[in-house]
## 1
Amino acid sequence: MERKTLLIDMDSVIVDLMSEWFRRYNEEHGDDLTVERIECWQTEKYVKPECGTKIYDYLDAPGLFRGLKPLPHALEVLERLAKVYDILIVTSSRTFAYTEKEQWVEEHLPFIGKSNLIFAHKKDRIRGDLLFDDAPHNLEAFLATGRPAVAMDYLYNRSVDVPRVSGWLAFESFLAGRKWGSEGEQAT
């Protein structure tokens, strides 16, 4: 059987973007925003009115993406999966993040390498057998192609009807129990 290609998102799937992003916002605005409070993709709905859409400006801060921590077990599971699957990291970015994400991958995921890092907003247009993401719009668009998607489980993406996992060990178990058919994929 040919190797399958996994498309894996970076922010809030491989790395913990929300903790650092919200820490910076909370520090400046005296708030207590956490990922557990975000019920939809529009983060600006959960910040103080004087911040509003400026919440996204924090994503433009130099150094933000370079210093993000991997989510628990992400690196070890990715290293095991890379022996069985072709892995493409698919992510979208703003300003400084392009270079910083490449540097992060070079440092933390040399077994995947920055040559397997694809910057795209329309992940459904990338050829791959399964998408592992957190953004509702990416999950829905990928499903619309007839290919399977798996969600890193967050409150803000629960409206999308896809298998969901709570972390990297659960994702690895999901893949281990999956049957890849020649005519299409079916979860077991």
## 2
Amino acid sequence: MSEDQDAAGAMSFIFEAGVLKRAARTGWWFAGVKHPESIAEHSFRTALIGMMLAAMEGADPARVSMLCILHDTQETRITDIPHIAKRYLTAAPNTAVTADQVADCPPAVADLINAAVAEYEAGETLEAVVARDADKLECLVQAVEYRHQGVADVQRWIDSSQAALKTPSAQRLADAALNGAPMAWLSPPSLT
């Protein structure tokens, strides 16, 4: 494969990933959220949470952030399938979707992305466990924010996300989210 073909293949995946900036997280429609966050917005904060959880749990923050950024990239092709729909639909495994997405990338890029998605999907390394916790914790935080904005029917997202958390650090952060105020950061501390 020529260098120009490698570059074109990599750019194709970059363009495809850009769709995630426009693709909504569809499950929130069931809660009455008319304009839910995009998959890219979810993935960004998941990566931020993952980096923090990794530091708290002794995992590799860079690796966790990479797993978090890549964990939903397949949704450009299979969309964000709500949990209720998963009872009736069978999607291709994320590893297979990712392999198709990066097939024309330079081999080093394809190998890196395929390995990261496989690691996340297997859920066996500390980094994968932390990344999965970051995904669930981000959903919980988003539900708390939507509730603060007046969306009443978010408790099922809070409960299922909290129940899925594995690490002590994620559980502590979930408790802090549930007991905190999303806009408290706007009130600066007293300078006295």
## 3
Amino acid sequence: MSSESNLLPLIVEPETLAEHLDNSQLLIIDVPMNAASYAEGHVPGAVFLDHRRLFRGSGAAPCDVPDEAQLSDLFSSLGLTRDTHVVAYDDEGGGWAGRLLWTLELIGHTRYSYLNGGIHAWREAGLETSTEPRDATHSEYQAEILNPEVSIDWASLKEKLCDKGFAIWDARSPAEYDGERGQNRRLGHIPGAVNMEWTDAMDRENGLRLRDYAELITELEALGITPDMEVVTYCQSHHRSGLTWLVGKALGFDKMRAYPGSWMEWGNRDDTPIEK
């Protein structure tokens, strides 16, 4: 479904969302890093999502995508329907919200928006918050992986490393990228990947909203990433890269993908090439 038919733009400002809070088609989801953030005050009508439910939670790559049964259970518990327009936000500048929206894209649910800056921008705008928990209305949502192309597994990624027109965006810290720190058996980065830390996409002086798009495009182009390329982004667990995937979408990159196994998987295998 195209963005023209959506209730709200991909990146929605707090004041715009505030004007639509009574719309019955909206499902506002707060997916904070710190669960206490929701209790302290959330967008009125928002439901809480434990970010751990966006991970499979088992196997060699526990940060991988949940299976279709898990996804069906997750989105049914949130009350998602085919006609729902989701607005996601968090308390940290867009990592977990981005992971949620990427998951929706994966299952073909493209009616979604990101509340620019999340709860920080909402509060800084002086908008009302609620401390009353909102119970979701359960639905019967059958999730299917309808857009598998927005994801990539380690084997497919390994095969594409030398392809022209292909770029890899590492959203981790420079120290992780350089192999100076990390919690994996092997440290470093995927060969050919370029590093722009996820927090560099946020404007800390403006409620953690996304930075100026022209500046971001210029900085990415300087790293060798252009909108016409196929771009895969990753971090340690496809949490931080939830934001960088979303940034690419917002900037008009049509072929944004993510590697959900991320470094948690790549850095713990014996058959994956590594650079430092």
## 4
Amino acid sequence: MRAPKSEATGTSGESEVLAQFERLGWGGVIDSRHDTGTDLYLRPRDARRYELGAVMGAQVKTGSSYFKSPQKDAEGTITGWWFAEDDREHFDYWLRHALPHVVILLDQDRNLSFWVHVTPERVVSTGKGAKILVPASQTVDADHNEALSDVALTQLPTPTWDGTAWTGAVHLAPVDEVRHALITPRLIAPHPNLAPDSISGLEALAMQTLFRDDLERILEPMSPSCTRRGE
């Protein structure tokens, strides 16, 4: 039995895009068991190959037919391509999904992949369906690795300020806390405005790394004589 050509194009495209991300140091898998609108699940890593704890979904479209609706500027230069579907099923699925999603158009002749993050402001209604512009300037390569990682990281809670107190390290795993206390101590050390009465050992390490002058006050409570003089 002969497999359809469209199947070969689709599966080879998914494999090629996954290989492009793997060359950037990402992890990933092809979802070959379900046809729900997510072809790849991609996991970004930092420069030292540490997992960033995020996952991004991708829908891959391969072939010249996906490059037949170009967007051009006033000088006639192609600035992107419109990806459209006759109904909103896939677009609504991507927008409602717990994971951020990108649409990727693969030009196999040039071995170039172009991507766009699917967000409500980028999706344009066409009546019953919808479309989105995939910029020609956004390719899957080292120059856009950070931008792609930023898309994946949108699923994670954004570090917030409570007044002026930093709370960015709330979700760190214990195995990472010592490393962060030494490399990014501001994430571990309590903010001075919190004026804590006691701290953990890791917080003390981070404060020492920052040369915080309030560390001694916290670790050495006032003596009874000092307390009487202050009464």
